[in-house]
Amino acid sequence: MLRGFYTAASGMIAQQRRQETLSNNIANALTPGYKQDQSSLRSFPEMLIQRMESEKLPVSRNFNVPMNAQIGSISTGVYVQENISDFSQGSLKQTSMSTDMALVDGNMPDETGGIFFEVQNPEGEVRYTRNGNFTVDADGYLVTNQGYYVLDQAGNRIETDGVEFTVTGQGTLQLPNQNIPLGVAYTANVNDLIKEGEGLYRVEGAELADARGQAGITFSVQQGYLEGSNVDMAQTATEMMSAYRLFEANQKVLKAYDESMDRAVNQIGKIR
Question: Which GO CC annotations does the UniProt entry carry (predicted)?
Fold first, then answer.
């Protein structure tokens, strides 16, 4: 009976964590470049249940032979194995702001490949993002809303001096006296990226390669546009309702076990 407690409780915990992931997706439904997370549920290893019994042999001494009868397997619960980000392209929204930019996926030689803007955090470390909601700071540098510097193809900060600029479809920022290719990185497997929050990702080890130097990769940059999140509100709301119903079902099972234990301890086991 105690095994049932653990199984039902693990189901409640798994659905609660799934609900938290879905809630975070909805909270970021309007965040530019946000990629929704999907929870992967996995069952704990199954156990083989046996019944221990004995059989009395028809002899004068009533000899008992111990026997084990296999009943079958039973699951020991479920848990959230990991949260996997969905890096599919979000829809484009026109803002007409010259500092807003959207990456548009083209041809990718790898099914799990992806491209990202390169930015630099205050510690000087490179991070990657799909959020092109940029602005120009007081020093004339192109930065993100968090104040991270947007990098060029060579890994340098982009200084605009507050001058109006245009961005070509190939991702080149054009100023009156110079052209600066934006830093666009490519990864063959987006699942290698580690989410940091605020739309930023990092990688362990070496930095990502320049997307322009990879064979078979095509992309474009749309100035005056932002890539919206890829959260499907209707689907997410449906999944949240499903997670709530499953949590509720496990809760009722747990309550039934609790009532059975109460009867076993306080009624059946009572000494009169």
Answer: bacterial-type flagellum basal body
Q: What pLDDT was estimated at residue 78?
A: 86
Contacts of 39 by beta carbon, 8 Å cutoff, 6+ apart:
17, 18, 21, 22, 80, 82, 83, 84
**Which of 170, 144, 168, 169 minimizes the C-alpha distance to 158?**
144
The contacts of residue 176 (CB under 8 Å, 6+ apart) are 163
Say if residues 184 and 115 touch (Cβ distance below 8 Å). Answer: yes
Share of the chain above pLDDT 90, in %: 61
Rounded to whole angstroms, how far apart are CA atoms 219 and 113?
12
The domain ranges of the chain are 2-46+79-83+232-268, 92-227
Taking Cα atoms as reference points, which of 168, 187, 99 lies closest to residue 135?
99
Q: What is the pTM of this model?
A: 0.80
Tell me how far apart the alpha carbons of residues 28 and 161 are, in angstroms, rounded to a whole number: 32
Worst-scoring range by mean pLDDT, 130-134, 190-194, 267-271?
267-271
Bridge-partner residues for 53, per DSSP? 67
* pLDDT single digits (tens) 142-177: 999 889 999 999 999 999 988 899 999 999 999 988
Where residue 259 falls among pLDDT bands split at 50, 70, 90?
confident
